[in-house]
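Notes from hallway chat w/ T.B., transcribed later so I don't forget. T.B. wanted the structure written out for a chain they're using in a teaching module, and asked if we could keep both sequence and structure tokens in one place. Agreed to drop them here.
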Amino acid sequence: MKQNIKTAIVILNWNGKNFLEQFLPSVVEYSQEEGTQIFIADNGSGDDSVDFLKKKYPEIQLILLDKNYGFSEGYNRALNLIDAKYFVLLNSDIKVTPNWILPIVQTMDEDSNIAAAAPKLRSYLDKTKFEYAGAAGGYIDKFGYPFCKGRIISVLEEDSGQYDGISDVFWASGACLFVRADLYKKLGGLDNDFFAHMEEIDLCWRLKNQGYSIKNVNTVHVFHVGGGTLPNENPRKIFLNYRNNLLLLLKNLPKRRLIPAIFTRLILDGMSGTVYLLNGKFRFFLAVIKAHFAFYAWIPKYIRKRMNLTKIETKHSETYNKSIVMSFFLRKKKTFDKLDFLKK
């Protein structure tokens, strides 16, 4: 399936026929640029997604995987079969809009130092607001908690154009991620061990540590349902988020910050688990406990991964050098423009 194309749009599907029926028409309609090809990688679906695609969209190239490899390895296996200048990792629950590709590709064409980029994500369910998984660009605080321009903790801002333009960010959302194919492959792609959740933050962090920049091109927007594979209130999702966030820190943080950050996170995660327990959410409490034991078991493996990484640049201005949790709950800073981001 090797091809010489410029932009490969790759949708990873797992039992998502309903999303394909609803959102694939917009992708086909608005992805007609020369040199653009749509691929769908099927992660061993048990529904009739593949039959639907073969009958309804015979022009779309299918990559059939033998089982569900998760988001990370599923994409890695599929993208290894494709030759392109840019990969676009696109969730199946995204509705794209006219001219969603060209402004981002042109931005990356004009600056070879941009490794990855994303459009602005709005909520499909409330189209006036930003969407949780990416909003207008991703950031991270000193303890590894991710947040977005337009979304802090659980507060979603209305999009009134306040964050429009092109800006440097710490991470670009994996829901609609444009990335240079050569760099993706050079860095080994997404971390297979993450399975799903926060794998794009890890990739962007590794790219930034190599000296590349990550951009959000907020002159373009798409609509995202969110929680399509695992709903937000799901113990499995909580487990993956807590475990992967700790692995993210162990793998990428500068040495001087590693122990203080991990130690603080263990305390904060313990407090979070206690809140779940006190609110009667015993399965969520167990998910946090299991995530920590899974993290402890993988510490030796991730120390080896850390030692194999080449770090060039480890201080990034897109890191919030405070606790976003404390800023949100104690200082009542619930929108991005209220953060004293420049006061390091």
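Follow-up for T.B.: The chain has ten helices and 14 strands. Might be a good example for the class.
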